[in-house]
Amino acid sequence: MSETTGSRQHPQVFDVSLNVPSHGSKCYDDDGKLKRTGTVWTASAHIITAVIGSGVLSLAWATAQLGWIAGPTVLFLFSFVTYYTSALLAACYRSGDPDTGKRNYTYMDAVSANLGGFKVKVCGAIQYINLFGVAIGYTIAASISMMAVERSNCFHTRGDDSPCRVSSNPYMIAFGVIEIIFSQIPDFDQIWWLSIVAAIMSFTYSTIGLGLGVAKVAESGKIRGSLTGISIGRVTETQKIWRSFQALGAIAFAYSYSLILIEIQDTIKSPPSESKTMKRATAISVAVTTVFYMLCGCFGYAAFGDSSPGNLLTGFGFYNPYWLLDIANAAIVIHLIGAYQVYCQPLFAFVEKTALAYFPDSKIIAKEISIPIPGFKPLKLNLFRLVWRTVFVVITTVISMLMPFFNDVVGILGALGFWPLTVYFPVEMYIVQKRIPKWSSRWICLQILSMACLVISIAAGVGSFAGVVSDLKVYKPFKTSY
């Protein structure tokens, strides 16, 4: 591991080898690690990169299932719950005193410090399965956007009625190769620049999707859609229920970033306290994403009504201007390259930390090879990191090619992960941290919030599962084309 990675995860190794004082140094934080440099803006960039995924483009479809009343209401409620529970979670970064208490470097560390026991294993399993699922979902989403560029150029050349069939496999492989390269960035705090680029890209394609929706509404001169969503007749009553549940899953997954919140918070410098900075970053990020989500979801629905596509930019609700669609889809791909890393870095760090704990004397795991690059800092290469992260990317790419409808499965993961990771664990940890008495009015309100979100998660999971069952009827492995 690099000095940064090793020091972030194993302070005892760092302190002994470099004889660094744990307190009072200008270069080191109170835990003896290299001084953190993150700000409210870098934290906001990480969050926006994680939150505004290509999921924003499915919000028009989600709004179409729920209608003009429930759609915006559900979006707003999810944003409020996400902000509130993220603020609770941010307060759990340090155990004890919010300014000087012991740091928890990961979500699992926070659960271990506050709740302990079996809950730590449950939390870890849910968190890392979610991260694995997101990596697969992003690979599929990126390939769909790359195919959309080829198809839009085909439509432009041959006409909108041409079949223009394209295979997803070459694009998934290309995305995998790019991620293998970027996955060698050693640590979370070293990808801040990738997050900022990705955040800019997310604004780019969201704005284009919004602009095209506004233009289509202006062109037709009327606002489509209804108060109750997609009409019975276009779909059956049963389909209406499943689709409404699935829409909840899409919105829940679109807002979910709590599983990497503590890792983002561990990059922030202090003073002021990390929890204050993180709450500000969360407020900024959730406010920005909610405005974008509302605009994209509502204008997309207003433009297409019941026929809103599952993806505003790749579902070919729009065909022209084709060059603008190409720019938007290229921005989606660049964004997903960064988002993949933001989500996978905590998983990478967990595996490497565990491997080093089991084999502390292994040179393969611990030794860094310095490769000089003219004009840049030397590249720190670690053999274990190189092999295991490459294998991870290869596995996620192969699964994406094998099960290209995995977005529905990711919807299940998102729905089931929303309640425990975004609501249950933050609420329970906060109750322990602040010593809130059982059956007090505050305790009861927090439990009601948790139970309500559990019901929503179950409904969303059921809807997404129904989508998978539907996909399996026409499933052919490794043969996906659009």
From TrEMBL:
Broad class of the protein's primary localization: membrane
Keywords: Amino-acid transport, Membrane, Transmembrane, Transmembrane helix, Transport
KW Plastid (keyword) present: no
tRNA processing is among the record's keywords: no
Sequence ranges assigned to domain Amino acid transporter transmembrane in this UniProt record: 36-469
Location(s) in or outside the cell: Membrane
Protein name: Amino acid transporter transmembrane domain-containing protein
Organism encoding this protein: Rehmannia glutinosa
One Pfam family of this chain: Aa_trans
Transmembrane domains' residue ranges: 40-62, 68-93, 128-149, 192-215, 283-302, 322-343, 386-406, 412-432, 444-469
InterPro entries linked: AA_transpt_TM
